[in-house]
Amino acid sequence: MPDTKEEMADSNAESRQTSGQSNRRRFLQATGVAGAVGLAGCTGLMGGGGGGGGGGGNGSIELSYWTLFSGGDGEVMKAIIDKFNEEKPLGDNISINRQRTPWEEHYNRLYTSMTGGSPPDLAISHASYLRRFKPTLTDISGMMSSTDYVDQILNACKIDGGTYAVPMDSHPVGLYYNVDILREAGVEPPIENFTQFKEACNAILENTDAKPFSPDPYWGGGGGFRQWFMGLHQYGGKMFNDDQSEAVFGGDAGTNSLDFLASVSGERNWDVPDISADRVAQSFRNGNVAMTVNGTWYVNVMREQSFEWGFDKPRVFPDAQQLRSTADSHTVIVPKKSGASEERVQAAVSAAEWITQQNPSWGAQAGHLPAYNPILNGDQLRNSDLWNKTLKSYMEMAQDGQLSYWPQLESSDLYATSNWTWITDAYSQNTTVEKAIQNGVQSWTKNVQ
Question: What does pTM read for this prediction?
Fold first, then answer.
């Protein structure tokens, strides 16, 4: 799933364990479910409210499920829910009513529903929003039948000892490149370290008409934040102090990350200091930019290109201390619902598990890194055209603990472009790196206090 409305354009083109088992058995007995084998082991009109708290007529339960997926992601999610409703894995009396809200409306609508008392039974939330939503979410720690998810991805769903979502995926970022341009410049991929990356950029600059590299396809008003955050962590820094009361990225790590990004459009001349929205996305597609950093979702765009494309882990920062990639996750949450029966809540949790555990197409087709270990180790994913192209590298980073997850804040929206304009100010050469970092630290400290 794209993380901003800008990326949606590309997507359109894209003893708790014992207690959990006991709760689940009571749920299965109460609802007559006999076919839950396997649980252990976006297009559409915006719907109405979240529905009632109990079941439907004759003991039926229709679970309302709000998503924000569009384009290729939306079609894959639709197929997953259609499969659920056709196969009835939790019994003939349980179905899912999927409703899609546009990205720019989803979180406001979801938060309003949860605080107003009429939330859906299930909803998609990025892991970065979980702390903000925590008071309105069900702690499902004792209700899950399986925790066989990639550790780092599952940990992003845990807050203060509780589990507040079922992880569906991780969507880190990596280096995408036009192989045709690289070969025109005399460069043969892969690109496995910064020295090779630098040599490739300079060769492209000297031997082709393309610009070698732009860090972000979606500059707009606040682009580059994933790439800067990735560099911050590759240099060993962090964004906030331990209690998230103060921004602390004003030292060497944060400055070095922004200094490199600004040098790309400055003295290195690998790109131009133009932060027009979608300039790079378009230029990468038409061959005027050779390399960029983007997320898992970008494969649906790349599949449509006429040129040969490649992908490598994002080793693009000079003298980095470690490999890290910015990451977030799509998760399935179960909002607290006034009057909901235990059977309904457990049905929602079991459905959330099914959605995350029976979705190899979420990786093989949509391009995201599934969180569920059996899917990652399964033949369908590993035999897909994306396994060796992107997913194997993403999986290796996840299993090696190389994903740097967004901080989970109680109030501030990380994705608001106004939070990140200090990055584009530096990239457009409108301010010095030192001044931009100072502005960023002041802005984020104010945001969390």
Answer: 0.88
